[in-house]
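Comment thread on ticket #2218

A.B. wrote:
> Attaching the input chain for the structure job we discussed in standup.
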Amino acid sequence: MEPSHYINRELGWLEFNHRVLEEALDASNPLLERLKFFCIVSSNLDEFFEVRVAGLKQQIESDIVTRGGDGRTATETFQAVSRRVRRLVDDQYAFWREQLLPQLSAAGIQLLRCDQMTDRQLKRCDQYYETEVHPVLTPLSIDPSHPFPLLLNKSLNIIVELEVSLKNRKEKRLAVVQVPRNLPRLVPFKVTRKQREFLFLGEVIYRHLDSLFPGNRILGHWMFRVTRNSELYLDEESISDMLKAMEEELDNRRKGDAVRLEISKGCPPHVRNQLLEELELSEEDLYIVDGPLNPTQLMQVYEGDHSPELRDKPFVAPIAYPFLEEKGIFDIIREKDVLLHHPYENFNSVVHFIEQAAHDPKVLAIKQTMYRAGSDPRIFKALMNAVRHDKQVTVVMELKARFDEDNNIKAARKLEQAGVHVLYGLAGYKIHCKMCMVVRKDDDGIRRYVHLATGNYNPSTAKLYTDIGLLTAREDLGRDVGGVFNLLTGICQFQGTEKLLVAPFNLHDSMIEKIRRETEHAKNGLPARIIAKMNALVDNQAIDALYEASKAGVQVDLIIRGICCLRPGLKGLSENIRVISILDRYLEHSRIFYFENACRPEVFVGSADWMPRNFFKRIETVFPVEDGNLRDRLVNEVLELSLTDNVKVRKMKPDGNYERSTLEEGTSKHRSQAEFMKLSTKMNKDRFGKTARQGGKYASMEVKRRP
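C.D. wrote:
> Ran it. Output below, let me know if you need it in another format.
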């Protein structure tokens, strides 16, 4: 394929982050939700620089020059990224100054500045500084006898220009004051039902800089922040203690090479240039910010149970109807598969599944993967309780889950201390699959009860991410899951599977084959359609196969939240492909793949996006949903409702940009996430009851076709 047929991955990601910013700009969202999206934009950009930009800079510095799928070299990509980020940051901070800050103030949420404070407020600021801040500050001079300090990744600092009096002359010098990481960046000044006042910690320090440099004249002071390469570099083949090696490497991450310098507007060029020189950065790495330097800290304003009128209406997910029956959880799963759609159905069903297994005297063993541990302790407590109840408990913990490594290390140590057998998977691969297997001695023999999912075993994020889970006692899936666990915990080769598709072994080839099968069906005049919902589409082979399917006449609908390197709507190549992205209250995280297969539909669900890293560098599982009622529910409810969204959807254009849908007069609004909430709350019992008692409300539905 021609390079012009592919979107650059980095630029595709930046377009995704622009869509996040659009949610902050959207005046139909409640004010504090707009603030949340504003913070997420910055958090996303931090990670982008720490990983993707850092990787580009390493490629530029190497002796190897190659072109990506879109034809750009690393240098060309870096330059394009720099231009796009600057437009994004300019838009973000213009929104902050012109809309968000004034609207927060009008709503009673004040972000104070010292030059606007009353005498009473200033007195309180002075007291706070003397008791809480001053004791932990250390001014660091920059001169021949004091080298430039090693500033930790994403730490907030103040660069101070001083006029220093020496014996016979006066001299300009610079000094650094590090803003303490262990103090809140927003100091709460007044918190009432109607008014909330905060003062940035940097403002507190600004007011008292004289106390840190007595006898010297302060000429100026400006905030700055350094972002560093945060990729982990481990030679897993030669590591004897993975846990210890990870702890050491995490410490190195905070001190990696600098990749970005952010500095407050107004800092003079000679100060900026000295900082760039000390950090070994260039002008291309400099970002001048007219606003708060680390907006993620503004989440402190969002947190708490205040101001319900400035938030989305609360939603409490109901328990899935099958679990409301007066039966034991294993009896229910043994009788029929249970599909869970989070966060619209409560994740507590999964937690209770593990808790019940921990206490059930018939349960012999529990095996579970863990990618992001999270802070909710219930699953970990259940696994530790299972050990106390004489169960054999094995957890495959992924220590390299990016930016959750420290949480996972702590969780692994606690589990090991409780007697859980903790393993760290296969060298060279991240364990990204989501599996839990309970081995139980039923009255009629040993049976495996399995939970497979698209999301992590993290009850906190399960309230914020859309995911699919399946609880089943099917023998074929149980055998496959058992085989994958043996692969992860023992010394054995992949033995193949009956139902599961497993990366890096057979997932990629299987997905390509299914796309090509739809292509052949279309060529032969048979019904052919593909719907794929995922977080990212990057793999060139999958993209090429979709292009061939489109040319053959296959209708292809792609629901992709983040990066999409495919160009839809190109004449003669991708005219039958539509790409949409939905950004709303919940983060779209589920991966669902539908293949019409000449009226013999197949639906697969799993943990893998269509990216080279997922296909070849991770252990992933994708499973079929073969119960007709559940399969049709996924297609006609989850996928088709997503495709009819005309409120929170963006449609991708051939040039890689996205456009919001515009409603014609008289057109009904369809906001898919809102409709999922209505389905789960108002029609949950009726829907599942009819499905169970009448043999399938969804079985009689036909898959809707695009006109």
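A.B. wrote:
> Thanks. Noting for the ticket: The chain has 19 helices and 27 strands.
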